[in-house]
Amino acid sequence: MSKRSPKVRSAKLARYWYYGLILLVILFFSLIRIRLRNMPLERDEGEYAYAGQLILQGIPPYQLAYNMKLPGTYAAYAVILAVLGETPSAIHLGLLLVNALTTFFVFLLTKRLAGSLAGLVAGATYALLSSTPSVLGLAGHATHFVVLFALGGILLLFKGIEERRLWLLFWSGISLGLAFLMKQPGMFFVLFAGLYLAKREWTRPPDWHRYAARVGIFLSGALLPFAVTCLILFAAGVFKTFWFWTFSYAWQYASRLSVADGFHMFRETSPRVIFSAPFIWIIAFLGLIALVWRREARAQLDFVAGFFFFSFVAVCPGLYFRGHYFILLLPAVALLAGIAVASARASLGQLSSSSIPPALPVVFFMGAFAWSVIGQRAFFFQVDPREAVELLYWANPFAQALPIADYLKSHTSPGAQIAVLGSEPEIFFYSGRHSATGYIYAYPVVETHKYAFTMQKEMIGQIEKAVPEFVVFVQVPHSWLARPGSPQAAAFFSWADSYLNTGYTLVGIADMLSPDHTEYRWGDEAKAYRPRSRMVIAVFEKKS
User: What CA–CA distance (Å, rounded) separates 128 from 122?
Assistant: First the structure.
């Protein structure tokens, strides 16, 4: 026993060392997020923040704000706002905590599958890739929350399988069900975990009662969050609206693009994602090879290959391939990177005749990691929060939404309603004023789908009935994405011009001249000002 004590102490020390290193990685990227925590919200964050704000006011989702996303992220934002405050800084600090916990989950999952070194590499990889501008990693998108609950559920699934405990399988299902509730692509992680459990529980000859009990308890847990949500929304009187937006319209939206369109968008986005850290992605690709090349890695082939496949499929619904969708793939990429480095190090260690030091794969990963951080040093360490959002989102009025919302807040009473003709829900959140219409995005009313004109009629009717004190007309292409010659867009803009000319007067102009310069005019100066750019936000006040 005494002879083994030094080895036991050495193993414990190594374990603490790896835990300490992953915490340092988390701290490093947390400091970057803290530095940029005051970045203005982009429109998805504005949607979640406004919906979360409404929840805290006792107003259920889909009553005053319509969108096709499931309400889990709204509830998550409501928690962040309640605990940390109703500011962009609070939202980004909440995201910091989500990202830190997700990074730690990636470390634990990979450590369980391939050892501590692999876990450390995977955790560092996820922390880096999930913070890059290419995936809009510093914005609080729903994909961050999907990944958090999916990984938590998978870790519980492993423990439930190993310890043969039904309650762990039940809570695994609940966590994965919450991943789906954050956003619809979370369903692919539920499907993956269910298939993996079914495969692991299958025996020959099968014990059907035990098999049905274990798989059934997992599935019941996975269904419970959605079932409870439906009951809550039904009791709140918004179930019909919820179902239309999150399933009927969502299906129309997801089926708009052709395969050729989707392939074009994938070619546009994926190089930006990969070339933000190209050597890290090369290492991850080598991890795929290691699954076949190294016997120890092949033992995890079914899990790793399945996890990667379903993670990629989760990126694909609708074939839009936007940058932040790739966050759903990053845990699988990080896992492969960890397997690649750990497998290469172990293989070199077994070759006594090799002149290549076993530590070389680790050194190569460290170099790739440092190269990727240095390559993005301007964003990580130099630009201020406002410059960061303009660097990421120029041609979107996210920074301009703040002074516009301040003006609206100072010129209206707390109970006033405003309308935004465009897709900038962050204005409602900043101003603390309710929208005169549930259409907080303009996209659906100018898109080409069978509900477009019905939606237009409803949106127009809601605005005309409310007679909002102020109307913000966002004349910025990215706030509409209307196709040239679209009859839906032509009809809506014709109504908007007539409505504003009849009942409203211009009181504010934000003229977006360049990424770092916007001209603001208020009152009589706004009426006399002639915009010099094609990107203008106009504020109108109801006539006396």
Answer: 10
